């Protein structure tokens, strides 16, 4: 690595990524000035009237703001926790399977939903959980009254988290499986010779072997905590479940694009970005402390 | 011979090049010119400034980039044609020498609205597009619109002017700001404003029931539809009353007063409740219909109906409310006269015996039908500031109004670029009456070439293709939809849908159909508050008395201020 010419190639390889990042992530960031303006698209960002913190004041006076913020946090935290635990447990279980063909087959099947978009999946989900859909039919065999699942505010966050886990756990499992293959097999052999049962081997060899991966993923997902999943919520919600299902992103979308209140929507978006930024910095500090993960 | 012909052609071409070059345009179409006729010469002779002919053909091609609304379920385009290249766009090219290009296209309804919003927000506008009132005001505020005052005065065809005049200035008023005309308004027929009840009459007959008249009848019939297996498949799978789909409106409102299919508008008006409309209160001050006790009463009834399972359990969660209608699972819904153009076209394909009939009900306590009315102008043609040929857009509208009936009606009119509906307020009523006369033999199609009533003559010529004898009965067995589904859609809508409106009824208008200043920033919040509160009450997620809390919130969050503004506006 001491070779200077070699390093130059690295920079060249970095170039497309940097250009992409600049064009699509850094340049659009200047749009945040709209949050401080009475934005007029005809005049543009440079000439619109400055109104200071007016948008933020109005935002804070709205009861909606608290609701969407809490909803976003609740849904996102639930998603992060569930998306850590379910794939981990599943990976451990797969790892114990001795039949390689079956293992691979299961792996393929469970990660298929990852490739379908929420537009398609939402249609399927709404049907499956509809009034006369399969779920209600099965429940009726046990004498339960049919439930309008996607019309129930109390159930909505769980449906959102549940369906997200269902869609993604197969894919997330792969990371754990990769970490598992990194464990030195001789440790298992040594443990077996020492007379460890399967459960003891799992507890004393497997888990410590992947704990850094788990911590790393947990910490990294903190930066994502306010992304509760626009696509998914947008395709599944309706006014009945706004009280528990409306998240920052869907609110910003409705306010900005449907109701044409650009300033207000941007203010909320900026609000979200600032909090996300704090969380990312925190998670980075935590990651370097606990998982020895460093970029700089 | 050959040489002579050739040289003549060359001379002609050269002459044309010179002529058209003189009139400040590109020499675009030498070879095509020879086949063209009168309007071409007329155009070529005059300078552009003098050529204020509403139907004048440009001598060099004018390109217009439009934002296009497309209907994704439209299957009427012949193979090879597209929304950008079809009989209508070719007709516009041939008649006016205007080339239409789709700057973008989006599906009818929500998608299109959002695409327009995005265009406005990013200031990346097509040369022309069709927008609604909110968008028009937004564009006006942003200074994105071309002033169309002169363009309209010079280029609007007499037919358009006369139809606009038939609204007693309402259409003109909707687009005039500071004395300038900033858009071209549409004018829709009055029938488009009234919401009526559609019902499966074959189900009624099977169960031995009469069409409902009052709210109580409605409840009885819906109950029978749900419980007595009207479709006879042995399963309890029928829906009484279809409700709005996900994202749909429970009731129409002053911003979107027309064309609210699957809402409960007639149920509300039976209680003299006009939610979403601005009314004159007892003290003759403006008051918002959604916060009045009548609305609470209607909501209580709707909640009751929903609780009893008579309204679609999945209303507002379902992605497409028309689906159970098309598949023959639903028995009642509230909507527009033009249902034939909508869900019924598919319903009839799935079940030729589905006898959907329309009635102007439910009636109020004193036996009157008391619907709320809309506004004749709810869509606007706007032209981007700085577009070189603002009159081109208007000419396309002129052309459609003049020649709509000459074009092949089988290809959905949605494909016309920049389509704006122009109908005299009484168009459908006149059509209904005249066609009845045609069927009765007292009028001949040739007599019906009335100015302004663009489709009447064609309708009269076509009606017998799909209408079977006896001509005065409109149940489905007296029709032959498959003979020509395109014609059937219009005729069935006219005889059944418009037919239902041929009795006098009490009309209620909103004090305003456009937004006030404070609404620009606060209406979205209030609107959300209302939609959420009403939906929760109807679907039983909140008690009826939560209505009172909604009223308090609504007033506090800006409602009172807006009411004062509307009151002020209404006084002017």
Could you name the key traits of this structure?
heterodimer; A: 296 residues; mainly alpha; two-stranded antiparallel sheet; 1% strand; B: 572 residues; alpha+beta; 4-stranded mixed β-sheet; 3-stranded antiparallel β-sheet; 13 strands; globular; disordered N terminus
SSE layout and pairing:
The complex is a heterodimer of chains A (296) and B (572).
Chain A: H1 4-26, E1 37-38, H2 44-47, E2 49-50, H3 54-61, H4 63-96, H5 100-111, H6 118-128, H7 134-141, H8 156-181, H9 185-193, H10 198-222, H11 230-236, H12 242-245, H13 248-258, H14 262-290
Antiparallel strand pairs in A: 1-2
Helix pairs in contact in A: 3-14, 4-8, 4-10, 5-8, 6-11, 10-14, 13-14
Chain B: H1 2-22, H2 30-33, H3 38-45, E1 62-70, H4 87-96, E2 98-107, H5 110-121, E3 128-131, H6 133-141, H7 149-155, H8 158-165, H9 170-175, E4 176-177, E5 180-181, E6 184-185, E7 196-200, H10 201-206, H11 215-227, E8 239-241, H12 265-270, E9 278-280, E10 286-288, H13 293-307, H14 323-326, E11 330-335, H15 343-350, E12 356-359, E13 380-383, H16 390-403, H17 427-440, H18 456-466, H19 485-498, H20 517-538, H21 546-571
Parallel strand pairs in B: 1-2, 8-11
Antiparallel strand pairs in B: 3-13, 4-5, 6-13, 7-11, 7-12, 9-10
Helix pairs in contact in B: 17-18, 18-19, 20-21
């Amino acid at each position: 690595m001491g070779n200077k010419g070699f390093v130059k190639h690295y920079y060249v390889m970095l170039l497309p990524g940097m250009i992409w990042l600049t064009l699509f992530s850094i340049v659009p960031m200047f749009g945040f000035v709209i949050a401080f303006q009475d934005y007029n698209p005809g005049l543009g960002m440079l000439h619109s009237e400055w109104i200071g913190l007016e948008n933020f004041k109005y935002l804070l006076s709205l009861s909606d703001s608290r609701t969407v913020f809490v909803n976003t946090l609740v849904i996102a935290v639930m998603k992060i926790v569930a998306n850590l635990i379910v794939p981990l447990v599943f990976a451990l279980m797969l790892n114990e399977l001795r039949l390689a063909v079956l293992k691979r087959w299961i792996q393929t099947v469970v990660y298929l939903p990852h490739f379908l978009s929420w537009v398609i999946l939402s249609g399927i989900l709404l049907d499956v959980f509809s009034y006369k859909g399969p779920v209600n039919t099965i429940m009726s065999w046990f004498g339960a009254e049919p439930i309008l699942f996607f019309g129930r505010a109390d159930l909505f966050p769980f449906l959102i988290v549940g369906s997200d886990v269902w869609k993604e756990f197969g894919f997330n499992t792969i990371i754990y499986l990769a970490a598992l293959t990194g464990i030195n097999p001789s440790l298992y052999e040594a443990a077996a010779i020492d007379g460890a049962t399967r459960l003891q081997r799992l507890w004393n060899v497997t888990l410590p072997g992947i704990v850094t991966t788990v911590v790393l993923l947990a910490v990294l997902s903190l930066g994502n905590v306010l992304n509760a999943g626009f696509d998914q919520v947008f395709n599944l919600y309706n006014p009945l479940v706004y009280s528990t299902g409306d998240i920052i992103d869907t609110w910003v979308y409705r306010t900005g694009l449907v109701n044409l209140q650009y300033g207000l929507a941007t203010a909320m978006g900026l609000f979200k970005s600032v909090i996300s930024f704090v969380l990312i910095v925190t998670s980075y500090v935590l990651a370097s402390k606990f998982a020895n993960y460093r970029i700089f | 011979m050959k040489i002579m012909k050739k040289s003549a052609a060359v001379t002609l071409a050269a002459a044309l090049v010179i002529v058209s070059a003189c009139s400040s345009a590109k020499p675009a179409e030498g070879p095509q010119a020879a086949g063209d006729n009168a309007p071409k010469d007329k155009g070529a002779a005059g300078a552009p400034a003098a050529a204020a002919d509403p139907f004048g053909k440009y001598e060099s091609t004018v390109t217009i980039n439009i934002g296009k609304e497309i209907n994704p379920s439209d299957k009427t385009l012949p193979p090879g044609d597209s929304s950008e290249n079809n009989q209508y766009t070719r007709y516009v090219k041939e008649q006016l020498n205007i080339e239409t290009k789709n700057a973008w296209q989006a599906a009818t309804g929500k998608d299109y609205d959002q695409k327009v919003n995005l265009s406005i927000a990013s200031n990346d506008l097509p040369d022309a597009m069709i927008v609604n009132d909110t968008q028009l005001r937004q564009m006006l505020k942003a200074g994105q619109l071309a002033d169309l005052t002169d363009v309209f005065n010079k280029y609007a065809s007499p037919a358009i002017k006369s139809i606009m005049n038939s609204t007693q200035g309402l259409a003109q008023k909707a687009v005039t700001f500071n004395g300038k005309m900033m858009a071209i308004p549409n004018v829709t027929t009055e029938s488009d404003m009234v919401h009526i009840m559609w019902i499966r009459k074959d189900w009624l007959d099977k169960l031995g029931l009469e069409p409902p008249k009052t709210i109580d009848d409605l409840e009885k019939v819906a109950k029978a539809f749900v419980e007595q297996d009207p479709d006879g498949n042995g399963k309890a799978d029928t829906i009484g009353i279809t409700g709005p789909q996900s994202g749909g409106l429970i009731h129409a409102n002053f911003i979107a007063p027309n064309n609210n299919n699957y809402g409960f508008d007639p149920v509300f008006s039976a209680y003299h409740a006009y939610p979403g409309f601005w009314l004159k209160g007892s003290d003759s001050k403006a008051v918002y219909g959604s916060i009045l006790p009548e609305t609470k009463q209607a909501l209580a009834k709707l909640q009751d109906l929903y609780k009893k399972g008579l309204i679609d359990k999945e209303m507002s969660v379902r992605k497409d409310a028309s689906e159970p209608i098309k598949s023959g699972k639903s028995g009642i819904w509230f909507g527009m006269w033009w249902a034939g153009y909508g869900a019924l076209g598919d319903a009839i394909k799935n079940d030729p015996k589905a006898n959907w009939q329309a009635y102007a009900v439910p009636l109020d306590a004193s036996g009157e039908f008391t619907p709320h009315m809309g506004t004749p102008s709810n869509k606007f043609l706007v032209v981007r500031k700085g577009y070189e040929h603002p009159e081109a857009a208007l000419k396309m509208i002129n052309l459609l109004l003049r020649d709509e009936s000459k074009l092949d009606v089988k290809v959905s009119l949605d494909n016309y670029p920049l389509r704006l509906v122009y109908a005299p307020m009484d168009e459908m009523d006149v059509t209904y009456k005249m066609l009845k006369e045609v069927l009765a033999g007292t009028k001949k199609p040739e007599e019906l070439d009335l100015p302004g009533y663009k489709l009447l003559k064609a309708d009269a010529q076509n009606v017998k293709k799909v209408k079977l004898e006896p001509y005065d009965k409109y149940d489905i067995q007296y029709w032959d939809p498959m003979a020509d589904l395109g014609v059937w859609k219009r005729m069935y809508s006219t005889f059944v849908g418009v037919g239902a409106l041929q009795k006098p009824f009490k009309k209620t208008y909103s004090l305003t159909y456009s937004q006030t200043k404070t609404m620009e920033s606060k209406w979205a919040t209030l609107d959300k508050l209302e939609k959420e509160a009403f939906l929760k009450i109807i679907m039983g997620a909140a008690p009826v008395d939560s209505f009172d809390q909604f009223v308090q919130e609504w007033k506090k969050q800006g409602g009172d201020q807006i009411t004062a503004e509307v009151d002020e506006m209404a006084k002017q």
